[in-house]
Amino acid sequence: MFKTILNSIPRPWLIRAGKLARPVIDLYYRGNGFVDPINGKSYRKFLPYGYVNIRKNALSPGTLSLERHRLLWLYLQQETDFFKLNIKLLHIAPEQAFYKRFKKMKNIEYITADLYSPLADVKADITDLPFAANTFDVIFCNHVLEHIHDDNKAMTELYRVLKPGGWGILQIPLDRQRATTFADDSITDPSERTKIFGQYDHVRIYGMDYFDKLSAVGFKTEAIDFTRNMSLEEIKKYGLAVGELLPVVYK
Fold first, then answer.
1. Which residues does 244 contact at the CB level (< 8 Å), separation at least 6?
2. Interior CA angle at 102 toward 115 and 204, to 5°?
């Protein structure tokens, strides 16, 4: 019965599961097939998820993390001092998978900002951030810029408020097969936008020139394929996407 009810829930809504539903879902899927590195728990499988194309084993039952969240967490753990150094962190459109964990970390002064998110401390437009220049040591802005019409202005603002010597991770849906970014504001029908851009509220598909766009506003950029040095067994265990690039930026 529980499985029937769960399968009837539209996958995007599972990421908004309530406090009561999450522990039940978490317990139901416990097993040894997959590991969520964010909470360290093991599951017999992850949940399917997607708007247009449903991906198998994408959504962790425990943290509601997706592939990109688990990739970011592993990178932070293994390649940075994020969990050790004292950091002033700006998190644009904070993800539920991270929010409570970052809030509890004593080494982080954690500030969240967004126009619409109920998790945001500061109601802010990313193209006009209400922070002084050179304020933050680290910035996370993940799967936001593809929603923003003037992404250049948003990137410029992120660069402005980052301290010299600071760094950030600015994830977006990236088509590695596409050299240049595609946008077409004449496509206004929501179903057509979903078909072309992946979601009705996306305004572009980023190509590999995304890194040039970041460089143009001043960032030093790296396109890090963190899965390159992982075995296929590890990639499957953590439910990652092979070859997904982490856009890491520095000022």
1. 67, 68, 71, 174, 225, 226, 227
2. 40
Q: How far is it, in rounded angstroms, from Cα 30 to Cα 43?
A: 4
The structure tokens listed for 23 are: 């522990």
* pTM score, whole prediction: 0.88
**pLDDT, tens digit only, all 251 positions of the chain:** 334 334 433 444 444 444 545 666 666 666 789 999 999 999 999 999 988 789 999 999 999 999 999 999 999 999 999 999 999 999 999 999 999 999 999 999 999 999 999 999 999 999 999 999 999 999 999 999 999 999 999 999 999 999 999 999 999 999 999 999 999 888 888 888 888 888 888 999 999 999 999 999 999 999 999 999 999 999 999 999 999 999 999 99
* SS3 call for 59: strand
How far apart CA 183 and CA 206 sit, in angstroms, is 9
Quote the Cα angle for 239-147-235, to 5°: 10
b (16+ CB within 10 A) / e for 29-54: beeeebbbbbbebebeebbebeeeee
Short-list 6, 98, 87, 71, CA closest to 243: 71
Assess contact for 31 and 43: CB atoms under 8 A: yes
Adjacent-strand bridge partners of 182 = 205
Give the chain's domains with CATH numbers. Answer: 2-65 (no CATH), 80-250 (3.40.50.150)
